[in-house]
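Target protein
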Amino acid sequence: MKNMSPSYSSTLIFLLVSILILSCFAQVPPNNTFKLVNEGELGPYVVEYRADYRVLDVFNNPFQLCFYNTTPNAYTLALRMGTVRSELRMRWVWEANRGRPVRDGATFELRQDGNLVLADVDGRVAWQSGTPNKGVVGFKLLPNGNMVLHDTKGNFVWQSFDYPTDTLLVDQSLRLSGPRKLVSRASEAKNANGPYTMILEPNRLGFYNQTKNSGRPILYHDTSKWFSVGKSSLEEVKFNAKTQTLKWEYKVAKSSKLGAHVLAQPKFNTTLTYLRLEIDGNLKTYTFYSDAEENFHWGESFKLF
C-alpha cells in the first residue's frame, strides 16, 4: 500500500477536525426552535399570589409554563404546578426572572444556537440559559418539573433544577459546589428576593435572616443534627419523596454512602411535593395528592416551625 501524499493527509485531517467542530456546535433543528409571546387573554383559574397569568405551550401534567404578574404589566416567567380539573389554587415552583420583570409582548425563545432567552418587548434580555453553541439540539419539560436543554445523546446541557429560587421539587438538590441556597420571596405582591435564606454549609443547612439593622445575616435555625458527617463535610442534599416519606438524602465528601434525614411521613402519596422557604422564613412542604374518590387536594405535609 502506498503512503498517503501530504496533501491527501492534510485534507483528511481538515475533514476530521471540521466534523469534530460541527459536532461540538450542533445547532437546534428548525422544528425544535420556538418563540412564545406574552400576549392574549389572562387565565381564568386561581393561582398563587392572586396573580394574573397567561399559559404557554410548554406542558407536562401537572406542570405548565406561564407568564404571571402580581402588579400590572410586570411579568415573571414561571412554572406552575397543579391541574385545571382540580379547580384548586395552582402554585409557582420555578421562576426565571425574579426581580427583573418583563412586559406585554415579551418573548421566550429557544434560538437555533441553543440559547434559551427571555427578552422584553424592547429586546432587553431579562434572563437566558447561557448555552449558545454548546451542542443543544432540543428542550423538554420532564414529568418531575425539570426543564432541560439536551444534546444529541440526551445529556443535559442545562437544567432548571440547577437554578432554584425559593422552592425545590422532588429529586432536586443543593450542592456545596452550587446551587447552594434558597431565598425567600419579599411578599405576595412583590416578586423580589426576601430577607430569609437557607444555605447548604459543610455540616448543615443554615437558616439566615438579613434585617435592615443587621450588618450581616443572623442565623435563626441550625440543622446540623439532621446530618451525620463526622470529620468530613456535606457535598449534596437532595429533597426526595417516596410513596409516604419526605426526606433529605445527603452525600458526604469522600464517601460512597448516602445518608437520610426523614422530615415527615404523611398518610397520603407524596410523589408530587414541593419544598419551600416561605415569605416568613419557615420551611414547608406541600403535596398535590388524590383521595379515594380521585379528587385532588393540596396538603401541607411538613413544616419546620
User: Anything to note?
Assistant: Residues 46 and 89 are 5 Å apart (CA to CA). The first strand starts at residue 34 and ends at 37.
